[in-house]
Design a protein that fits this description.
The protein is mainly α. It contains four helices and no strands. It has one domain. Helix content is 79%, strand content 0%. Helix 2 packs antiparallel against helix 4 (57-111). The radius of gyration is 24 Å and the shape is elongated.
C-alpha cells in the first residue's frame, strides 16, 4: 500500500493487484522452502550411492530398493505439502468474492 488511498472502494483493486503479487511471492517462497526442506532434489541425485558406504552387491541392491521406497514416500509428502501451498493461493483468490457474497446475503436476509 505505497502512497495509495486505502478505502472500501479501492480494496478489491488492491486485493487483486498488489495483494495478489504479495500472495504469489509468498507462494513461490513457500514452494522453494518445501523443496529445500524435504531434500527431494538432493535425495534423488544420490540414488546410486550405497547407504553407509556398503559397496557389496547385496548392500547396493538393498540400498537402491530402500531409497526407492523412501523416495516414493518423500514424493507423496512433497506433493501433499505443495498442494497445501497452492490451495492457500487459490483460497486467496476466492476469499474476496466469498466474503462479498456473504455480506450481500446477510444484508438482504436482514431486509426481508
Amino acid at each position: 500500500m505505497n502512497n495509495t488511498s486505502f478505502n472500501i472502494f479501492t480494496f478489491p483493486i488492491w486485493w487483486y493487484s498488489e495483494g495478489l503479487q504479495l500472495a504469489w511471492r509468498h507462494m513461490a517462497s513457500n514452494w522453494r522452502n518445501v523443496l529445500r526442506s524435504t531434500g527431494f532434489v538432493i535425495f534423488f541425485r544420490n540414488m546410486a550411492q550405497p547407504l553407509y558406504g556398503d559397496y557389496t552387491r547385496s548392500g547396493r541392491i538393498i540400498s537402491f530398493f530402500l531409497r526407492v521406497f523412501l523416495l516414493l514416500f518423500l514424493l507423496v509428502w512433497t506433493v501433499l505439502r505443495l498442494a497445501g501451498v497452492v490451495l492457500g493461493f487459490v483460497l486467496h483468490l476466492a476469499a474476496l468474492p466469498a466474503i462479498l457474497i456473504m455480506i450481500i446475503y446477510q444484508v438482504f436476509s436482514i431486509l426481508v
